[in-house]
Amino acid sequence: MRALVRAKAVLILHTIRLWRYRWSFLNMILAEAAWVFLFILGALLFIPKEFLGVAVKGAFWIIVAWSVISNFSGLIGGWMNFFISIGMVEEHMLRGFSPFKALIGRLIPGSAVTVASLFFMGALVGGAFRVDVFAVEDVPLLLLGMILLVVKGLSYGFTVASIAVRTSVPQNLLEILNFGFIGLMMVPLSSVPEKARLLYLAIPYIAPTHLLKVATSSAPKMLVYEAMAISSVESVIMLFLAITSMKLVNSWILRNGVRAIGFW
Amino acid sequence: MSLKTLFKSGIMLDFYFIKNNKSAFISMLIWPYMTLGLILGMGMIFGSSKSFVQNVGMPVNPITYFIASTIAAMVSLDVMWGVGGSVLHHRWAGTLPYMILAPNRTSVTLVFTYIPRYLLSAGTQLAEFAPLILLAEGVSNGLLKIGVMVLAVTIGMLPILGFSALFTSFLLSIKEETNVLGWLNPLILLFSGAFYPAYLLPGWARLISRVLPSTYTIELARLSAVMGSPNLRRVTFLIGILAAMSIVYNAFSGIFVEVGERKAMREGAI
Asked: Which sign, positive or negative, has the C-alpha torsion A125, A131, A132, A137?
C-alpha cells in the first residue's frame, strides 16, 4: 500500500511538472523536430528523386532511434543535476525512498517528448516529401525494436544519473557521444563485410535500430533473429548494470553524503 | 563605461568561460565537424555526389558546399544566441536588471561584450575547416575560397547583429522564461537555406527567406563551393545586399531595443 502511494506521488509529481513546463515541453519538441528536419533536408540533396521514398523513411527512423537515446539520457540523466541542486536527494534518502525511484517518473516527460516529436517530425518530413514515414510493414517487429531501444535508453539514462551523483558528467561530451551513434546507425548492415555483421550488431543500439529499419522496409530482411537475440541480451545487461550502479551509488551516498557535482 | 571596457570584459568573460568549462570548448571544436559528418555521411550512404550536383543544379563540390553551409549556419546561430539569447541567460542568472540599469544601452552592452566571442568562434571554425578545404580544393583555389568564407562571416555578421538585437527587444518585452530561441533558430536557418538551398524551398518559404540576413550570408559563403573561381559580380551583389540590410536592421533594432528597454525599466525585467 505504501509503495503504491509513493508510486502515485512520483507519477503526480512528474505529470504536474510536465503541465507546468508545457511551453518548455512544446519548445523542446519544436526545436528537436526543426533541427532534425534541417539535417534530413541537407542529406536528401544527395538522393536521386526515384529513391527519395526509401531514403526519407530510412533517415526518419534512424533519427527516431537517436531521439530515444538522446531524450532518455538527457531528460533522465540530466535531471539528476536539478534534483541534487535543490537538495531533494537527501530529502528522499532521509525518508527511506531512493532518489532513483523518483527519477523513474522522468519516463513520463521523456516518452512524451519522444512520441510528440516523432509524430511532429513524421508530419513535417512526410508532408514535405509526400512519403508516408509511418507506413510499417511489420508492426510487432517495430514495437519490439522500440521497446528494446527504450529499455536500453532508460538503462543508459539511469547509469548516467548514478555516475552524475559521484562525478561530473559533461553534458556537451555526452551529446557528442549520442550524436556519434547516429553515424553508426546509418551504416546499412548489407554494406558491412559479412564476417563483421554480428560484431556490428553487437554495438549498443545498433541491433534494435536494425529491427526498426527492417520493420519499416528501409533495410533488407537479414539477420533479424540474430538482431532480436543480441538486443535482448544487451538490454538485460544494460538494465543489470544500471540497477547495480544505482544500488552502489545509493549505498555510497549513505556513507559519504551527496556530492553536488551533477551533470553540467 | 567605455566601449573598450565592454569589449575587454567580453574577452575576460570568454577566457574564463573556456578556462573553467573545457568540455564546452572541446565541444565547440568537435560540433561543426559532427554536423558536417552527419550530413555528408547520411548523404553519401543513401545517395551520391552526382545526384547532389543534379539536385542543386550547379557545378559544386559537396564537401566545400557543406563546409561553407556549416560555417555560415554556425556563425549565424552563434550571433543569434550570443546577442538575442543572452537576454534569457541574464534573466535566468538574475543579472538582467543590472544590465538594464548600466550606463550603456543594453543593446550596446550585449553587442560589444559579444564581439570577442564571435571573433573566437568564427576564427576557430575557419581555422579548423581550412585544412579540409585546402585538401578538397588545392592550395591556391582553397585559399581563394577561404577568403570568400572570411568575407561572408565578416560582412554577414553586421546585419545579423541588428537582426538578433530585434530578438533582444522581443525577449525583453515578452518576459518569457521559456527558451523560444530554441525552436526559432533552427527555423530561421531552415528558411535561410542553411543546408538546403533556399531557391528549392516552396514559394511562401522563399518570401520569408528573402527578408532574413542569414540567407545572404549563407549564399555568399556558399559561392565558394562553386567549381573554379567564385563569380565576382555575384559576390559584390551579395555584399551590397548585406550592407543595405545592416543599415536597415541596425536602425530598426536601435529603435525597438530602446522600446523594449523602457518597457523593462517601467514594468520590471524579470
From this structure: negative
Residue A12: domain span: 2-256
Q: Sort out which chain B residues have CB atoms less than 8 A from A113's CB and list them.
A: none
Contact B117, B10 (CB under 8 A): yes
Domain count for chain A, please give it.
Answer: 1
Is residue A262 in a domain? no
Q: Are A65 and A205 in contact (CB under 8 A)?
A: yes
B67 contacts on A by Cβ (under 8 Å):
none
Residues 183-202 of chain B with CB under 8 A from chain A are 183, 185-187, 189-190, 194-196
**Mean predicted confidence (pLDDT) in A143-149:** 92
pTM: 0.76
The domain spans of chain B are 3-267
Is residue A204 situated within a structural domain? Answer: yes
Cell of A188: 546499412
Distance CA A43, CA A64 (A): 16
Q: For residues A108 and B93, what is the distance between their CA atoms, to the nearest angstrom?
A: 28
| pLDDT tens digits along A70-90 | 888 777 777 777 788 778 888
Q: What is the pLDDT of residue B240?
A: 92
Contact by Cβ (8 Å): B165, A12: no
Between chains, do A172 and B178 touch, taking CB under 8 Å as contact? Answer: no
Q: Is A264 within the bounds of a domain?
A: no
Q: Which helix (H) or strand (E) holds A9?
A: helix A2-20
* B139 exposure class (CB count in 10 Å sphere: 0-12, 13-18, 19+): exposed
Choose among A144, A75, A78, A140: nearest CA to A110.
Answer: A75
**Minimal-distance CA residue of chain A relative to B185:** A31
B256: contact with A, CB 8 A cutoff: no
Provide, for chain A, the percentages of residues in helix, strand and coil under a 3-state DSSP scheme, each rounded to the nearest 5: 80, 0, 20
Q: What number is the average pLDDT over the span B167-195?
A: 75
Residue B33 forms contact with A (CB below 8 Å)? no
Asked whether residue A261 is domain-assigned, the answer is no
CA distance B233 to A56: 37
Contact (CB, 8 A) for B188 and B163: no
Residue partners of A95: CB distance under 8 A and separation at least 6? none
**Per the CB < 8 Å rule, is A172 touching B24?**
yes
Confirm or reject contact between B3 and chain A (CB < 8 A).
Answer: no
CA distance B170 to B164: 10
The interface predicted TM-score (ipTM) is 0.77
DSSP string of A158-187, one letter each residue: HHHHHHHHHS-B-HHHHHHHHHHHHHHHHS
The residue among A151, A180, A164, A136 whose CA lies nearest residue A68 is A151
- In angstroms, the CA A15 to CA B258 distance is 40
